[in-house]
Amino acid sequence: TAVQPDAAAAAAAAYEPVQRHAHVAYVALGSNMGDRIANIHEALRILQEDGEVQLLGTSFLYESPAAYVTDQPAFINAVVKISTALQPLPLLDRLKAVEGRVGRQERFRWGPREVDLDIIFYDSLVVSDRRLR
């Protein structure tokens, strides 16, 4: 059967953002301050708002005890798969800006946080930069 032009255009439009965003990355999210689930949702909303990052998939939300500095509230954690045209360091800058907009306050290493976003995979690259540690 022939595909109607409108249907073909709609199908092509559905795939256009993925084609435009040449890179696939996985980002870990965590929160143990305030409304933890709302913080995660707000971070995801902000991350996607200008179209430079497209959400491709999400994990479930998991609650886990804090690591390293254990005298703090438990974390809600998730991982998302994204596509983006941003290179690793500009993506990191974007994640830090999202953290700030959600209300993250700098405390101490491994301390409590309103939201934390970390790049865990970016294509198949291994990037050595102190900012990514």
From TrEMBL:
Q: Which UniProt keywords apply?
A: ATP-binding, Folate biosynthesis, Kinase, Nucleotide-binding, Transferase
Q: Name one GO molecular function term.
A: 2-amino-4-hydroxy-6-hydroxymethyldihydropteridine diphosphokinase activity
What sequence ranges are listed for the domain 7,8-dihydro-6-hydroxymethylpterin-pyrophosphokinase?
Answer: 109-120
Is Nucleotide-binding one of the keywords? yes
The record ties this protein, via InterPro entries, to:
Hppk (IPR000550), Hppk_sf (IPR035907)
Please name the Pfam families in this protein's record.
HPPK
Query: GO:BP terms for this protein?
Result: folic acid biosynthetic process; tetrahydrofolate biosynthetic process
Protein's name in the database: 2-amino-4-hydroxy-6-hydroxymethyldihydropteridine diphosphokinase
Keyword Nucleotide-binding in record: yes
According to the UniProt entry, what is the EC number of this protein?
2.7.6.3
Look up the record and name the pathway of this protein: Cofactor biosynthesis; tetrahydrofolate biosynthesis; 2-amino-4-hydroxy-6-hydroxymethyl-7,8-dihydropteridine diphosphate from 7,8-dihydroneopterin triphosphate: step 4/4
